[in-house]
Amino acid sequence: MGGPHYGGGMARYLEVHPHDPQPRLVAQAVAVLREGGVIAYPTDSCYALGTTMGSHDGADRIRHLRHLDDKHHFTLVCADFAQLGQLVHLDNAAFRAIKAATPGPYTFILQATPEVPRRLAHAKKRSVGVRIPDHPVTAAIVRELGEPILSSSLLMPGHDWPMTEGWQIREELDHELDAVVDAGDCGTTPTTVVDWTSGAPEVVREGAGDPDRFR
């Protein structure tokens, strides 16, 4: 790809098998991320925008695309529970409940560890959103990358619902993204968000995950 081109180019379009993602295509998506690029990729709730934790430019581009301010809570998408546990502080109750609910369509807001760059955590609370999606393509990309993806739902300004088809994302955002990972139709329901920063779970958004297990 010859280094970051960002904005103005055409997005690489990767049609990936939803259940058995091709390693060659996963590697291409990861190469874009490692160069600081922004990708659209599927999850178990809806399509998301992703970049690496170290890419200031990528985070700024996602904020610009979605018209978000600098108070927006990004989510760190993890491959497994071990990775999640390095990013946030978990007491025994949170550990057991979150482990039982993952992988799945939940985002958990918890106190960040020093592993999380200060600029990615909530300024006052030092909290961050984390999740482990139950989607083979997401899992393959995060495992190959070797670190969490800095992520935000692909819900564009003025839209009521996220875009659900890879070709549609490519058509609308071709010059804004560096790659579109198309694994077929994704849902429109965002994750259920559970805030654990007070020491007990509080469901702050009902979504794809069953909220009753955290009440």
From TrEMBL:
- Output the Gene Ontology terms for molecular function: double-stranded RNA binding
Residues covered by the YrdC-like domain: 23-209
| InterPro entries hit by this protein | DHBP_synth_RibB-like_a/b_dom (IPR017945), Sua5-like_dom (IPR006070), SUA5_domain (IPR052532)
Name by which UniProt lists this protein: Threonylcarbamoyl-AMP synthase
